[in-house]
Task: structure prediction
Amino acid sequence: MLNHLFSRVWPGLALGVLLAFGAQAQPDPLPSWNDGAARQAIVAFVDAITTPENPSFVPPAERVATFDQDGTLWVEHPMYSQVMYVLESVPGLVKAKPELAEVAPYSTVLEILKGDRAAMAKLTLPDLEKLAMATLTDMSVETFSAEAKQWLAKATDPRWNKPYTELTYLPMQEVLQYLRANGFKTYIVTGGGQDFVRQYSESVYGIPPEQVVGSAVGMKYGYAEDGKPFLTKEPKLLVNDNNAGKPEAIQLMIGRQPIIAFGNSTGDQQMLEYTAAGSGKRLSLLVLHDDEKREYAYGPAQGLPDTKVGTFTQALYNEAEKHGWIVISMKSDWKKVFAFE
Amino acid sequence: MLNHLFSRVWPGLALGVLLAFGAQAQPDPLPSWNDGAARQAIVAFVDAITTPENPSFVPPAERVATFDQDGTLWVEHPMYSQVMYVLESVPGLVKAKPELAEVAPYSTVLEILKGDRAAMAKLTLPDLEKLAMATLTDMSVETFSAEAKQWLAKATDPRWNKPYTELTYLPMQEVLQYLRANGFKTYIVTGGGQDFVRQYSESVYGIPPEQVVGSAVGMKYGYAEDGKPFLTKEPKLLVNDNNAGKPEAIQLMIGRQPIIAFGNSTGDQQMLEYTAAGSGKRLSLLVLHDDEKREYAYGPAQGLPDTKVGTFTQALYNEAEKHGWIVISMKSDWKKVFAFE
Result:
């Protein structure tokens, strides 16, 4: 009888113990974050908008989170990886059209690739745009995809000697997963090329191509000789996904206002403003590069000279203070920067 | 002992019976379809691409289905509902700018709205474009959304005396649900205005705004007097989502080739070609309007005169035959056309 009773009580007891352990063992969703203001703001925001009884509750369908990529999700210093791709695609271009070897800016790029880093200063923004159009367009979507994937598989960052795709910030990867586990759709909203980022967004961040919003050129539909249709990337900018272009592209491509957004530079300011301006609880955050030892420190907020990339200016800092945006300090908010550390 | 044995066997037996009943009771996912070639092709396609052992298996992330809207998901005859919206927005425009009342094409629209349907013939395509820009742009995204929602709530189709949003085809609603239940993301890819369709796509089709691809004007980010940012719809066409524009916009907005696509007119031809051209098993389908009694019959495939809208031409019919696209006959493939029948 005792045995019988025990056999009926025991399973219930075991289940209770398991559940209690389950609750205690709930893993920390943000283990690479120190318990500072930034982490607390993120967790409090998610708790509020996912709690049905909370007046700030947001239905899952409206949980849109947008992330800048370069400098927010992965390293952008000393040069955007896509700029490296453009430069390293020039020799292939020159091989096909040898006359370009003597013409600037192609000749300048060949000098840079031979090791003359000082020659980089000769490249103007219009030069870079010209090089981008020459290396990223006038080819089929399939050809571009194959070339970009090939480059990504072998290109490495010189400081860490690792593929660019491994230089993502572990704390931000945790935020992406944490938000998705709480019903968010996570989007990349990048000034970089939409087609480029779509080559790796799914494997690197778990973000599918249809959730990548970026700068985009026009497409041209046509037919191959065998009648098979294909799309060609045209040398014509259709979407410039920087500054005011970010909220504009968000409306075009998503059609919903984000409720949480992460950026790191002046190019993200309008996205953060637009996110914060919606009704209900909103959260806008900026990643501050203040960790010279583990990553980089740049931007005038640290009294450092302004840089070509990832400009977190004093004016942007002031905007953040004025609007109550959260500034994430890489140095003090992140326990680890990279998964490989 | 027998009792003991029974108590151990019984739960397993009950489970087996339940499972068997479950399998038998599986409801037909397409109850409004007759068991013809179209239905069989859809079911065979879904079975093949969702069966892991099948060589045609497609991972859920790549299950993209695209649907034209007007004439494919709902009634487009005798006039697109969005054209009705544009025409019925003209009086409001004239109220704000009374001088327009004497100027064509605004004066023509006022005649039409007074009941002179013959005046419709006076409106050219450039007239319609001018009217569309005048009634759909130069206003904030919020203002447009409020006005469109207000119109949709009260506008009715004259034949059925029902809101346009109830004139969706029940068999196509079933296909949308069937595909989603099988891991597909369902998209609308419409020549109509993306912002217009996004006002009702979620409530009418269960398709969220971010899965509506349509014709789109440029956006302009700016600030209200109180500093609050907002987006203005500009009178400048950015995406013309018709004909070749459909696969071009699919690449821009989705970045994946659909594996199944539904259309009903020449404006959908390139989307169907592009879908069929991908590797692996693909399915392209055309809805043929051949049911004058329950809906409409139009297009030269029926020996009927060509119409301004929804042109299912003989040439398109020939393309369908040549490529093996499935032609869905409303008359013979659909048991019911509307849910309210």
Summary: The first helix of chain B runs from residue 2 to 25.
